[in-house]
Protein 1
Amino acid sequence: KQEVTQIPAALSVPEGENLVLNCSFTDSAIYNLQWFRQDPGKGLTSLLLIQSSQREQTSGRLNASLDKSSGRSTLYIAASQPGDSATYLCAVTLRFQKLVFGTGTRLLVSP
Amino acid sequence: DVKVTQSSRYLVKRTGEKVFLECVQDMDHENMFWYRQDPGLGLRLIYFSYDVKMKEKGDIPEGYSVSREKKERFSLILESASTNQTSMYLCASSLVEFNLLRLGQEQFFGPGTRLTVL
């Protein structure tokens, strides 16, 4: 059974720092991996999607990498801002588009 | 832009009531999903549908049913609400996977419905 783990569970940094969020999964038979952002009490916003054949994707200050063979993905956030404060979730896509989620990293960026 | 809407942001119901949660997407997506999100447990898949009138059980279908009469609408039904169904419910949609290329599609989520069962 696929299991997804995110480390750390919570992270607090000062504004301007570069930071890395980690995601690991137990079964490499995935279609893709998605990173989401969730603000308190809200739905999920898709940030980046990496296909299983890709190594990384970039969007603005965000860069996500995927190493399928080792079951790891990282989300790199450059020059963090208070507006980046949210919970970040990674999820792997299995057959029939089923997602298996990690439990998230709660990020707080202080001014 | 893809838009997934859910009928209510907040809902309060009593134990034993029949509850309907509605989800509508406007991008002609084949796949639709219902998840629930609980602290410490993360998001868990309840049911999904890959076509009109088709449904498949997810990881925690007990106590729920679904209906998909039209492509754009996917309803989650709590036949007899119980207090352990108090949760945040999230709907999502996506295009069908392309088996030839074995690509996975991006899932788009609605804003969520916070259901409280008293």
Protein 2
Amino acid sequence: AQSVAQPEDQVNVAEGNPLTVKCTYSVSGNPYLFWYVQYPNRGLQFLLKYITGDNLVKGSYGFEAEFNKSQTSFHLKKPSALVSDSALYFCAVRAGGATNKLIFGTGTLLAVQP
Amino acid sequence: DARVTQTPRHKVTEMGQEVTMRCQPILGHNTVFWYRQTMMQGLELLAYFRNRAPLDDSGMPKDRFSAEMPDATLATLKIQPSEPRDSAVYFCASGFGPPGIYEQYFGPGTRLTVT
């Protein structure tokens, strides 16, 4: 069965420092991977996705993610964190078969300190 | 700027009452999802539709929950009767394109409190 894991409930980083939010996955077949962000009292917003092609995927708000097949990881990164990046981040993988369903991780709360 | 809209944004009701939540997907999107988010369970998929047909409602408690798409511009989620454990934020999302490849667009959610 397809699954994703976000091993950190919370990540703390100082403004201006690089940030990484971790995600590992388990799939049968080709992985279709997504990152979403949720700001307080808002719905989830799409950040980026990996379907095929380059392992480094660039997305919204300066975020990028690196697909690593050997390590089955899809970590979210940003070179320089902003206080406004503080939010809840979800990794997701497409469920198996020809489906639109996504399986979401448990979320990682990113806290960027000024 | 196309958005998914949900009504109501907040709902407080008493146990046993019927609750109806509505969603207007982005025009042209052919797939609609209903999710529930709680602190304990995280984000759970309740049901989803493609071209208005229900494809999967395995995440939904069948005895009290029902989801429908009366037309392409409206999706509804009903709870009857409601229970305190149904208190959560309910999100609708819509999407379009080949299965699983295109992103989902989420609405702002309906925060339900059942007392």
